[in-house]
Amino acid sequence: MREAEVSLWARVRDRVAASDPGLLRLAAGSRTAGSIALTLAVLAVLGSPVTHLVAGAIASMVASFAIREKQRPRQAVTLALGLAVALVSVSLAALLNTRVVAGDVFFVVLIFCAVYSRRFGDRGYALGLIGFQIYFMSLFVGATAATLPGLYAVLAIAFGCSALVRFVIVYETPAGILQRLREAFRVRLAQLVSAQMELLDAGPDEADKALETVREGTARLHETAMMIQGRLEEGTADESVARLVQRRIAGAEIAAERLGLLLLSARSAERTSTLTLHLPGAPVPSGGELPVRDRATDMLRRDLGALRMLVLRPVGEGGTAMSHLRNRLLGYRDEENLPSASAPVQDVFRGIGEAARAVMGLRVALDGPQDESDDSPATTRSREELDAESAAIEGAEEGEREEKEVPAGLRRPTTRAAVQVSVGSALAIVGGEFLSSQRWYWAVLTCWIVFINTASTGEIVVKGYRRLLGTVLGVVAGIVLAGLVGPHTWTALGMVLLFAFAMFYTAPLSYTLMSFFVTAALGLLYTLLHRYSWEVLVLRVEETALGAACGIIAAALVLPVHTDRRTNDLLVTVLRRLSEVTGAAVEQLSGGPGDDLLDRARDLDRALGDLRSATQPLTHPITPMRTRRNTAEYLVALLETCAYHARSLAATAELLPTHPSIAADPRLRQACARITHNISVISAHVTGEHCDDAVETGPSIASMLEDAAPGSPRYGRITDRVLRHLQRLDEAVLGLARPLEVPVPEPGR
């Protein structure tokens, strides 16, 4: 019974770790709700009125979520500066309370400064946000010069409680966050292997659904790898450890993605395009099942389960049985250990062997040396390779990185956004006054919010739509809850705490859900202030719609950045990063100097993530242009395919010091030259330069493999694998040309 309880708890823990990598959302929600609860408790002990309770709840919430810096000393400094900014903001709001015109003008100036301050990094972002939100809080509670002393005390208590919760109660360190992220990566890797097992066994009617689960698992694993990348510098002891963990995480991610591709190929009659793993809705090739269900395929199912167990089992558990299992999987890296089966099925066994090696490398990097007493020769060889790679990584020097060009003047994103949101807020103030002289600031708040983390008119439209939808649903919930709670102050405050937690827990998942919880919480706060009525909540919807409309108008008419222009700019950035990674990897594989290839590959991943976010207005379900949506999804999927092969090339190139069999093969440069040329042609076409240039076509890069020595194993030579990645990359880049209307020569010309 005890073992069953432990097993159940382990499964629950794994599910939580996988759904919330690093427990970042749980920590954010707990930190905010805890800060509000502690603030309310202190104010209640002091006998503060309800107005101060509401002000304290808002102030502590702002003090908690505004801080985004990762280093604790910097967080403390920003929090202290934030208190000073909050005191100034509430003072000006109270003094300008009776001066309508001057107060409105100052509010617009404050909004401009708050947005412009984002150019100064996380601290500028936090101070600007605190200044705006505290001014809004002052309007909400009706701050006056007479109430300032009490509000000063409330702000001091709120910021103090926020600091206590952040630095003592919900204690987080960069190393601890990184450790939880690594645990999430492990669980998500196991979940991806489980999804691949389901794909292997799925019948024709279930195959497409199983493939979609594999796609989701692959994307979630990549998301966690990128989160780890962002935490390595602060969460590791030194740069060499960070580079080693980065290399092992990248290796495990690539091995898992390759295994999924090999499984797809095993299900079909021919080699599967990598695009199938990245294009939403793409069917399983041949729609079918494994061609033969024999002893080899039964072994395949067994070994996929063993790989999953190897990923999940903690270090030190399992004893001899786990060692035997690990030795068997690593043995598939040797040709003589492969079972008799068709070539595609044998490729899957090879993929399992490579995945097991990646898992072992990840364990050594994260958990230190392990017991080697039961190692087989294949396991010993894998350990020696990993040790040699680790030594090469520790001895590598970081190459010089190019400086990023920052636009100046009104072309700077923060300056442009500050002008846009100021104009939109001015419109919202005027329109809001017509709707209500007492609640006009709701329109300004919505206008401000739709500009946060958006960079194009299309993104603002989508965010405004989501904000309005969440607000309407929240108003309905607010009406019901206000009727149930009635005059029960502490019940209402308890529900506000619950909604505050849900607000920040769901924020990264759904902006609509976050808006719902915000509006429902505000309905309860209105009830506490005895300002609740049906008319007030309807007015909330009207002000929200007005604010969203003003934001959209300002974004469309004032220094507009159209979605097409932004996506084109980001597409060019992705193509440039792709060319850099490919060129640098091939140069290193061909005997050139070393470079920080995995960092370059992660720069490509980040640029692709920005492009994926920017295309959301084009791929959103409300988009009426279906053809355009399909084209955007296809292009992003092709670029994800390119990024996978570029990551694989970068990871392979970093093995150069440990694999002298990678020769300075002239075929590599020859293959890379055409790819980088075609990327340059596509980039020039997107930017409007040399639009008549055509991409180059020629003999398949795969044909170069015919020069390999007779009898060499299919995946035994690293050069063979590199050329296959280049082949897939060449095909994907050519695939980009047609939807972007880049001229492609006719076959035979």
Structural Rg: 29 Å
Low-pLDDT runs: 1-6, 397-404, 708-716
Number of strands: 0
Following the backbone from N to C, one meets helices and strands in this order, namely: HHHHHHHHHHHHHHHHHHHHHHHHHH
Distance between the termini: 73 Å
Strand content: under 5%
Largest sheet report: none
**What's the total helix number?**
26
Helix content: over 70%
Outline: globular
Q: Please tell me the overall pLDDT.
A: 81
How does the helix and strand content classify structurally?
mainly alpha
Strand and helix layout:
Elements: H1 2-19, H2 24-45, H3 50-65, H4 72-95, H5 100-116, H6 121-141, H7 148-169, H8 174-201, H9 207-235, H10 239-267, H11 295-312, H12 319-331, H13 343-367, H14 377-395, H15 413-435, H16 441-450, H17 457-485, H18 489-506, H19 511-528, H20 534-557, H21 563-589, H22 597-614, H23 616-619, H24 626-653, H25 666-687, H26 718-737
Report what the structure shows.
The chain has helices spanning 2-19, 24-45, 50-65, 72-95, 100-116, 121-141, 148-169, 174-201, 207-235, 239-267, 295-312, 319-331, 343-367, 377-395, 413-435, 441-450, 457-485, 489-506, 511-528, 534-557, 563-589, 597-614, 616-619, 626-653, 666-687, 718-737. Mean pLDDT is 81; it is low at 1-6, 397-404 and 708-716. Helix 8 (174-201) packs parallel to helix 10, helix 8 packs antiparallel against helix 11 (295-312) and helix 15 (413-435) runs antiparallel to helix 16. The protein is built from 26 helices and no strands.
